[in-house]
Amino acid sequence: MTMVKNNKYDNKKALKICFVSLNSSSLIFQSAENYIGGAELQQVIIAKELIKRRYDISFITYSDNQSLRYKKINNLTIIPTYPRDYNSRWFKKALTIYKRMKEIDADIYIHRAGSPGIVSIFSFLHKKKMIKHIASDTDVTFRRIILENIIIDLNG
């Protein structure tokens, strides 16, 4: 059986892309937990499309309370961190995510919901590319201050 080459990237190693999306575990594992929002759904849909284009895709997620071993589900590599209800200091949680990012050694890290903190730090220190997916311009501008349910527009 011969493989037909469809594009110029067929001879190269697949680009490794890792989504740091802790809440995506509910969607990927199809669990009964309802911690799924639009961000998680969009990331899984994007990941499935990237897999069709032969990218090596992984997700860093919460663990399913059963195992901390990597899992392969529908060509997605799942790297669990800790259970969603894990009661520990933020530094220990950030360190766990940092270690998982180092283990997976992706070319690109994608982060969507919440503070990019440790993802940004890791990407900078290890010279990796990072994509911070935002919902709107207000996520990255200081044009508005929200103070006790009052929005103050600083531009006018």
Keywords:
single chain, 156 residues, alpha/beta, Rossmann fold, 6-stranded mixed beta sheet, two-stranded antiparallel ribbon, 4 helices, 8 strands, globular, disordered N terminus
What does this 3D model show about the protein?
By secondary structure, the chain is an alpha/beta fold. The protein has a single domain (16-153), classed as Glycogen Phosphorylase B (Rossmann fold, 3-Layer(aba) Sandwich). Helix content is 28%, strand content 26%. The chain has 4 helices and 8 strands. It has helices at 24-28, 38-52, 90-104, 117-125; strands spanning 16-20, 56-63, 71-73, 76-83, 108-111, 129-132, 144-147, 150-153. The strands form 2 sheets. A 6-stranded mixed sheet has the order 3-4-2-1-5-6, sandwiched between helices. Helix 3 packs across helix 4 (117-125). It starts with 15 loop residues before the first strand and ends with a strand.
Number of helices: 4
The CATH class name reads: Alpha Beta
Q: Mean pLDDT score, rounded?
A: 76
The percent of residues in helical segments reads 25-40%
CATH superfamily: Glycogen Phosphorylase B
Structural class: alpha/beta
Order of helices and strands: EHHEEEHEHEEE
The N- to C-terminal Cα distance equals 67 Å
Q: What is the CATH topology descriptor?
A: Rossmann fold
Number of strands: 8
| Gross morphology | globular
Report the sheet-strand fraction.
25-35%
Counting structural domains, the number is 1
CATH architecture: 3-Layer(aba) Sandwich
Task: Report the uncertain regions.
Answer: 1-5
Q: Enumerate the strands of the largest sheet in spatial order, edge to edge or round the barrel.
A: 3-4-2-1-5-6
